[in-house]
Design goal:
The complex is a heterodimer of chains A (335) and B (180). Chain A has 335 residues and is an all-beta fold. Chain A has one helix at residues 251-256, and strands at 22-32, 37-46, 55-64, 68-77, 82-83, 87-89, 93-98, 103-110, 115-123, 128-136, 139-157, 160-163, 168-177, 185-192, 199-206, 217-221, 226-230, 234-239, 246-249, 268-274, 279-295, 302-318, 321-334. Chain B has 180 residues and is of the alpha+beta class. Helix content of chain B is 43%, strand content 20%.
């Protein structure tokens, strides 16, 4: 099934007084539970378009259980990136969403890391929209997601290629106004049991300490039917502290933040949903983590985006169907 | 200085170590003058010797102007920083942490406490400003792709020095939470 949708980058209007806090972010995640490959590809814009300090950031990372994190992050001035209606292309990492043909394209070429990726993801589910401006620190955030995508393509490391034909894709787009270093954070995750199998997504915005959180959102996509859970029907809890070493990027910002070498990340994430009709319990155990450091382009301030990769199991009953699925997930913990 | 087109299609020049340091400070002054002022305040009158592979320079500020001398000279320096190009690339590319570089013996910083602290602060000023000064990122790209320097080797390398630490050193590093 393909799903036509409409979504574009949301650059600020010329007289928008908050344009210096502008952010726009396109993601494609690919998960292959069979091989354990988890790919994180995203491109983002930070700061007012005409400001020479504004940045574009491209991330192309693949986690392979045998090798750890492969790939890297590219950072450049925004003026050096090619920005389209639904695409952002840096010199080495590019992502384009073609809604007309229901496809998302990723290209990454990082010769210093011997890393190349060429991926096309077909949109296989209608989008979920959060167009309203949700409060986020002193600003706001909105997002758009396509929960299920077919994937074709591969990632090549040196002379070795990793085929992604069996992977499941997930796309989302976040935009809004916030400044890295403000009192903001979020928790987000996507969990895929495999091609044609159930997929689950979770998200909520938080403050930096994660002590205050917005209404959570949980999506159960069973292929033929989807259920959304919000608010008090969703609970999240963390357990333990993850001991896995971090790959921290970009390296220069990691060097600047030695105090963030060992953040307290959860060793287990539990999400439970129960709205009286449907219920499910998801348990995610990460086995690897990366830390992406985002700097605010117009003033000193940093955000730390932790990407946790691991296995999950979900059990429950959704849409009159009993579910018991295992697979591969990515959980993002931002502070 | 000569030039060459890199993998990204841009032209990357050949630069000597002193030219890279001069460009760092020039671009900082141009992109974020307050950062340049902080750098001068941190450095004060101190002189440092920087060695990367076979190149050595001695640097310091004199009446606000950066002075770069080919080294080593017989003049007294307050601090010395020494590493190789691969270590710089591993740090820039996120394959090595500063702590690992020091513990692994890949990065040596010597001097009295004040000088070493100031050298660290000066690097912090540059790294922090690089977030807001795209020209500093371009300089890092130039360094990665400098056609006159050896290409970097991708991937992580294991710490080398750690197994040879004396037990007392190991205990000290552990107490200070400095072990990887």
């Amino acid at each position: 099934m393909t799903a036509a949708a409409f979504d574009t980058l949301r650059p600020p209007a010329p007289l928008d007084p908050t344009r210096d806090a502008y952010k726009d972010w396109l993601h494609l995640n690919v998960l292959d539970p069979g091989s354990g490959l988890a790919g994180l590809f995203n491109v983002s814009l930070h700061g007012a378009p005409e400001d020479p300090r504004s940045r574009a950031i491209g991330t192309a990372l693949l986690h392979r259980p045998q090798d750890g994190w492969l790939g890297n992050v590219e950072v450049c001035g925004r003026s050096r990136a090619h920005v389209g209606t639904t695409s952002i292309a840096l010199e080495r990492v590019a992502l384009a969403v073609d809604h007309r043909n229901a496809r998302t394209h990723v290209s990454a070429r990082l010769p210093a890391d011997r890393f190349r990726a060429q991926i096309v993801a077909g949109h296989a589910a209608p989008p979920v929209r959060f167009d309203q401006r949700m409060p986020f620190g002193q600003g706001w955030i909105s997002w758009f997601l396509i929960s299920r995508m077919t994937v074709s393509g591969s990632v090549t490391l040196g002379d070795v290629s990793f085929d992604l034909e069996e992977a499941v894709g997930y796309h989302d787009h976040n935009w809004g106004r916030w400044r890295w270093g403000d009192d903001i954070g979020w928790e987000w995750g996507v969990f895929a049991a495999g091609r044609g199998a159930p997929l689950f997504a979770f998200s909520r915005a938080t403050n930096r300490s994660h002590g205050v959180a917005s209404e959570p959102f949980f999506l159960a996509d069973l292929g033929h039917v989807r259920r959304q859970f919000r608010g008090p029907s969703v609970t999240l809890s963390f357990e333990g502290t993850l001991g896995a070493p971090l790959r921290r990027l970009p390296g220069a910002l990691a060097a600047l933040h030695q105090d963030r070498m060992r953040p307290a990340l959860p060793a287990c994430v539990r999400i439970a949903v129960d709205d009286g009709l449907d219920r499910a319990a998801l348990e995610f155990e990460p086995h690897a983590a990366g830390q992406l450091i985002a700097g605010e382009p117009t003033r000193a301030g940093y955000g730390f985006v932790h990407e946790l990769v691991g296995d999950f199991r979900v059990t429950g009953r959704v849409a009159a169907r009993r579910i018991d699925s295992r697979g591969l997930g990515v959980f993002e913990y931002v502070d | 200085m000569s030039t060459d087109a890199g993998d990204d299609g841009r032209v990357h020049p050949c630069r000597a170590l002193g030219e890279y340091i001069g460009e760092l400070v020039r671009r900082l002054d141009e992109g974020e003058p307050s950062g340049g002022a902080r750098l001068r305040a941190v450095a004060g009158p101190l002189r440092a010797r920087i060695q990367v592979d076979g190149e050595t320079v001695e640097i310091g500020f004199s009446r606000g102007a950066l002075r770069i001398d080919p080294g080593p000279t017989r003049r007294r320096v307050d601090g010395i920083g020494r590493c190789d190009r691969q270590t710089v690339l591993d740090l820039l590319n996120g394959y090595m942490e500063v702590t690992d570089a020091i513990l692994g013996g890949y990065l040596e910083v010597t001097g009295n406490v004040d000088a070493v602290t100031r050298m660290g602060q000066a690097i912090e000023v540059l790294l922090d400003a690089a977030t807001r000064v795209p020209a500093l990122h371009q300089l890092a790209d130039d360094y990665r792709s400098d056609p006159c320097l050896a290409p970097g080797r991708p991937g992580p390398r294991a710490p080398a020095l750690l197994p040879t630490l004396e037990p007392a050193e190991h205990a000290l590093f552990a107490r200070l939470d400095l072990l990887p």
